[in-house]
Amino acid sequence: MGHYLIDICPFWVSNLIFTIMSIQQIDFSKVLNDEQVYDHMMSNYYLLGNDWIHHQFRWLNAVYAAFKDHYKYMIIISLVEKTLQFYDQMNIKLSYDQYYSKNFLQIDKFSITELCEKLQLPKETVRRKVLELEKLGVLKRQKKQIIIDRRSFTFIKPENQMKYTASYILKISEILTKEKLYSKKLEVKMIENVLKKNFSICWRWFYRMQIPMIIGYHDMFEDLTTFHVWGTVCMNQAFNYKTALNKRNGSNQTHDYMNFQKELFTGDYNTFNEEMIRGDKAQSNGVSAMSVSDMTGIPRATVIRKCKFLIKNDFLKLNEKKQYILTGFNVRRVLPYQKLIFKNKAKFIRKVLNLLTIS
What is the per-residue pLDDT for 241? Predict the structure, then answer.
């Protein structure tokens, strides 16, 4: 026994010394907090808004594409998040490759009721979706245990999403660096590698940002397909808005969140379009049902049906070309909620940037 202690002590001590030295090397005055990240995201929204909208659009497209059903995907990643929570509580850190090398993921004490509460969905809906996932072979239930089969990994592996997320984090780091709040020089590949190396913890942070966000939009739009359609119209209008701002003579290039979103939703930016300068009546460039269908993979008939709901509830309207555009109602309905979810976004980004500082 004595020999065993002698053998392991140098290793234990060297690790402890390394940990202490690593902590001492951290300048805690440079560690970011949530408010710093949130405030600079909001004040520099002109530089970040389109990137964030594209980030979320790609993620939502991946959510739908996996099963042609948003809710099946949400059930799977809610269960995955539960396994990540377990690993975090047990202080187990798995890389991306380690996590997806497993044949299956097992979640103990699973219940339909628990999943209903997490996703705020009716019990009948969750039970039906779980049964459909079982028929697809991606889930298996054994009493109160549920197993996520390896074949589901193809649908939920965030290989591309990690690249998109790393690019967005880099953009925020550059803004914080310019404000002298962050000093580590980053590159997209470096960020992606750190996300992969610390996958089990980082992607739990990611899901804790995304799952509540999507649940909130489900509540606002009554289902996720409707939100997906609305979000696609929003992305199209944001692209047009940014183009108009870039053409604006003497444009103020430091729009904060509220100014950016108010002009985006109300279409006020058309005042500066070349058509208006010529004296013609300006009209927002919208998007057709066919284009929304092509961009999302959602059937055209479904897009038309969802757009009727969105028009009825004043989220969308038709322009003179019979294309879908946003209404000013979104300022009152959507902006207060977006500000809340951006708090979760700031928390996620702060955690990753601080992790990158010590990596």
Answer: 83
